[in-house]
Amino acid sequence: MPAPPPSIHVRVVATWVSIFPLVTLGMTVMALSGPITAAWPTWLRALSLTGVVVPTAVYLVVPRVLAVSVRWMSWRRGRSAAAEPGERL
């Protein structure tokens, strides 16, 4: 039986877990390139940061995080089903 799709809550957490490190890394890179990006207006820094973070998260990171979460949830379901009816894990 195929695993059900992840809930909206799992997808929110997977997205946050994916985007937070990417934004942190991007902000660090921008801070280290201070002379170049410091003079840019805020909107241009935000545009360039999100222009890299969003596609990276959507196409690379979030699908992998969701795949890991689906495997983990399937493992938990299988482990729970294998337990005796009166036994809790």
What attributes does this structure have?
89 residues, 3 helices, mainly alpha
Summarize the structure.
With 89 residues, this protein is mostly helical. The protein contains three helices and no strands.
Q: In terms of topology, how is this protein built?
A:
Elements: H1 8-32, H2 34-37, H3 42-82
Helix pairs in contact: 1-3
Overall description:
The chain has 89 residues and is mostly helical. It is 79% helix and 0% strand. The protein has helices at 8-32, 34-37, 42-82. Helix 1 (8-32) packs antiparallel against helix 3 (42-82). The longest helix is centred in the last third of the chain and has 41 residues, at 42-82. The protein is rod-shaped and about 65 Å long. 6% of the residues are buried.
Order of helices and strands: HHH
Residue share in β-strands:
under 5%
**Proportion of residues in helical segments:** over 70%
**How far apart, in Å, are the first and last alpha carbons?**
22 Å
What coarse outline follows from CA principal-axis ratios? rod-shaped
Secondary-structure class: mainly alpha
Average the pLDDT over all residues and give the rounded result.
86
Strands, total number? 0
Question: Biggest β-sheet, characterized?
Answer: none
Regions with pLDDT < 50 over 5+ consecutive residues?
none
Counting H and I runs of at least 4 residues, what is the number of helices?
Answer: 3
Radius of gyration: 19 Å
